[in-house]
């Protein structure tokens, strides 16, 4: 009986030890919990997420900038415990204010991948001192701070008129409202535009986020009114021509914005006429980026505006609507212009230059580049060696490499020949010794 009791006690103790030594269940990731995102303009965006059940094997954050992004930024995130945080350094990676940032979290545990629902953070310009006030006026929301309420209201009224006129000509309504931010100081304004802004900028548009930035000190009231109409027109143009293939020609985009400022191109025509004697730009040359210099820039805008004016006067506003519709379907610049006017783009360009009595610009033939003359120093300081095509050639007809000599080549050949014979001799001796030893081993 005592043996039985002792055995039972031993078994009980063993089970207790086993139970104590067994590891506790390991926490395993089972899903995403609460998610938050905050921004501090010009400094950082911070994204946090709760990890239900613990950290996964791998964790990533997926970011998309803008309402219609064409790419996704993916960053690995270190996860410890029950939460994780990712910080975007906005002080070095500039993001335009008023940009919507869509974010998702992606976790991988073993072969299981879990992706959180998408959420959005609006990256706002919330710098200290910018106590924004807002007012919706027609198709625009105007934002201002300080004592700029009257100017903001005027901008809102002007926007409504500019949008309506552009919509009618382009045959397309705005896809959404426009945000207009009015800055009182130069430092506030350029702080919003970021490091790439040029010092002469007084207004700027970012059509993809439907946002216009205005600086009250950028010019007179009349200048600001004109600039606002110009910038707002760009947003309407973007909506009317947006497609996944390419952007319309810059001269057409900017030309329509300039024409819309006064619904004519009279001033631009004077600029073009004054430049005819110096030579005009081919429209192919101003399809992309405009020249930076003052002459090149002003002439590019003027040619664009006068071409738009020619199209409207000759073919009617319906031609502009047809061109915009063609762009939306993915047409090239030449295809879109022909869709609107009914004539090939080359003929349209020729008619344009002819209307100003100008010669149509032609490509400049490439200049012939002669052979290079390289100073090798072989003939002493400042000596110039003749090009390879003029190198001296020995009687045998074999050219001598630059910087070498026939005697040097012969010496090198002799050395290589002797070394080769020595290697062959050493190999033969080694083989003979090996066979000799093998024979003595067999005899024994």
Can you put this structure into words, describing what you see?
- This protein has 444 residues and is an alpha+beta fold.
- It folds into three domains: 31-123, Immunoglobulins (Immunoglobulin-like, Sandwich), CATH 2.60.40.10; 127-238, Zincin-like, CATH 3.30.2010; 243-360, no CATH class.
- It contains eleven helices and 14 strands.
- The strands form three sheets. Strands 3, 4, 7, 8 and 9 form a five-stranded antiparallel β-sheet that branches.
Main beta sheet: strand number and arrangement?
5 strands, antiparallel
Silhouette: globular
Strand content: 15-25%
Helix content: 40-55%
Indicate the low-confidence ranges by residue numbers.
1-25, 380-415, 438-444
Feature tags:
single chain, 444 residues, Zincin-like, 3 domains, 5-stranded mixed β-sheet, 11 helices, globular, disordered C terminus
Helix-strand layout with pairing:
Layout: H1 2-21, E1 31-40, E2 44-52, E3 58-65, E4 73-76, E5 79-80, E6 83-89, E7 99-109, E8 112-115, E9 119-123, E10 133-137, E11 140-144, H2 149-170, E12 178-183, H3 186-193, E13 203-206, E14 211-215, H4 221-241, H5 250-262, H6 266-275, H7 294-315, H8 317-328, H9 333-341, H10 345-355, H11 406-443
Parallel strand pairs: 11-12, 12-14
Antiparallel strand pairs: 1-2, 2-6, 3-4, 3-7, 5-6, 7-8, 7-9, 10-11, 13-14
Short description:
With 444 residues, this protein is an alpha+beta fold. The chain has helices spanning 2-21, 149-170, 186-193, 221-241, 250-262, 266-275, 294-315, 317-328, 333-341, 345-355, 406-443; strands at 31-40, 44-52, 58-65, 73-76, 79-80, 83-89, 99-109, 112-115, 119-123, 133-137, 140-144, 178-183, 203-206, 211-215.
């Amino acid at each position: 009986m005592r043996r039985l009791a002792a055995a039972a006690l031993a078994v009980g103790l063993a089970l207790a030890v086993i139970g104590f030594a067994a590891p506790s269940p390991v926490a395993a990731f089972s899903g995403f919990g609460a998610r938050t995102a905050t921004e501090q303009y010009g400094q950082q965006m911070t994204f946090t997420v709760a990890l239900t059940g613990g950290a996964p094997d791998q964790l990533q954050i997926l970011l998309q900038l803008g309402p219609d992004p064409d790419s996704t930024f993916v960053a690995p995130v270190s996860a410890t415990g029950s939460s994780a945080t990712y910080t975007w350094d906005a002080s070095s990676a500039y993001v335009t204010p008023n940009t919507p940032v869509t974010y998702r979290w992606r976790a991988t545990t073993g072969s299981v991948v879990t992706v959180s629902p998408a959420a959005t953070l609006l990256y706002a310009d919330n710098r200290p001192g910018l106590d924004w006030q807002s007012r919706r006026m027609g198709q625009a929301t105007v934002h201002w701070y300080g004592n700029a309420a009257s100017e903001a209201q005027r901008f809102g009224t002007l926007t409504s008129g500019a949008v309506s006129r552009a919509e009618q000509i382009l045959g397309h309504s705005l896809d959404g409202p426009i945000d207009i931010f009015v800055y009182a100081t130069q430092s506030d304004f350029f702080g919003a535009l970021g490091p790439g802004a040029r010092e002469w900028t007084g207004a700027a548009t970012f059509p993809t986020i439907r946002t216009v930035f205005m600086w009250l000190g950028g010019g007179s009231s009349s200048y600001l009114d004109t600039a606002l109409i110009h910038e707002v027109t760009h947003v309407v143009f973007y909506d009317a021509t947006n497609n996944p293939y390419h952007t319309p020609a810059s001269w057409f985009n900017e030309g329509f914005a300039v024409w819309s400022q006064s619904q004519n191109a009279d001033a631009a025509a004077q600029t073009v006429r004054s430049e005819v004697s110096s030579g005009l730009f081919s429209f192919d040359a101003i399809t992309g980026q405009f020249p930076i210099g003052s002459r090149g820039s002003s002439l590019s805008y003027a040619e664009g505006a006068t071409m738009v004016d020619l199209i409207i006067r000759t073919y009617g506003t319906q031609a502009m609507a047809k061109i915009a519709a063609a762009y939306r379907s993915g047409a090239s610049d030449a295809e879109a212009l022909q869709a609107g006017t009914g004539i090939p783009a080359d003929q349209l360009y020729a008619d344009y230059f002819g209307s100003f009595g100008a010669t149509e610009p032609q490509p400049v033939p490439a200049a012939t580049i002669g052979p290079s003359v390289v100073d090798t120093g072989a003939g002493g300081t400042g000596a110039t060696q003749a090009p390879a095509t003029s190198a001296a050639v020995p009687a045998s007809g074999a050219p001598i490499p630059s910087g070498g000599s026939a005697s040097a080549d012969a010496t090198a050949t002799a050395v290589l020949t002797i070394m080769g014979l020595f290697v062959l001799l050493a190999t033969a001796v080694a083989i003979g010794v090996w066979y000799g030893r093998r024979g003595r081993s067999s005899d024994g």
